[in-house]
Amino acid sequence: MQEKAQLLRDNDMIEQALVHTERTVSGGLKTRRKDLTIVLLLASNLLSFMLLLGLPRLWSHLPPTTPDPTSTSNASNMFSPAPTIGMQLPDTSSPAKLELALTASHGPALVSELPTHPVQFHWSTAYSSPDDSEADDLWNAIDTAHGYIAVEHEWARERGWMASMPVPGDETKALYVLEGYHQFHCLKIVRTVFLQSIAGKELSYPVQHARHCFDYFRQFIQCHADPTPLYTLGRHTSGDGQWHMCKDWNALRDYATENSACFRDRVGNESLREQFGNCEGLENDGVIA
User: Fold this and answer.
1) What's the predicted TM-score (pTM) here?
2) How many domains, in total, are found in the chain?
């Protein structure tokens, strides 16, 4: 009987201890919830106060709701690629503006009004003669430096041309290269590297330069996407003898002559400055047109 009574007393003590623990934990949680609520209220009030003080200043730095077409920092430009130094990105907000911007950025620099005339394309010409000496003479005669032109900075800016480096020795003018001559420059490099490679000779140009030229031609071909339908009479003869309407290279040559930067390819160890100021013999670029 005494053991049973002791067991009942022990159970009562355990139950009282559990009740006390539950009340303590519950009270602690309530206290913590109360403390957390106070902290959140204080933080909310502090944030509201800071916003009231700082919102006007923050708002003044945000882009306007209605974009300013004359501004270079409006919201529509936030997702545009950052232009490189001297690069003028066209306005692409509408097809009409894009066409106008591209026309303005081209300007007379591209001589877009060159006269055109029919030219017959052939599978083989003197430039692809199996007589290497004959073909080499023709290719070596092409003077790609003829395509360097110089115009006044302000004149170029008024026509939307991208800013370019000043002409060494004449800071008042900007230096440009007509793309047709740059294409000839790349074509001559590719031809030289190709012939030297198959002959097992030391290359005159780094291979990476030739790779650049190949990729440049790819970009140019994709850009122009020529849809001319070439007739075919058998293997390897597509378009042989077919007529094309082409821009007059002679007119481009004359334009380059009239605006010449008097540049020549490097001779020996001469400096960049010494490559300019060579205005003799500018009438001919060596291209047979």
Assistant:
1) 0.62
2) 2
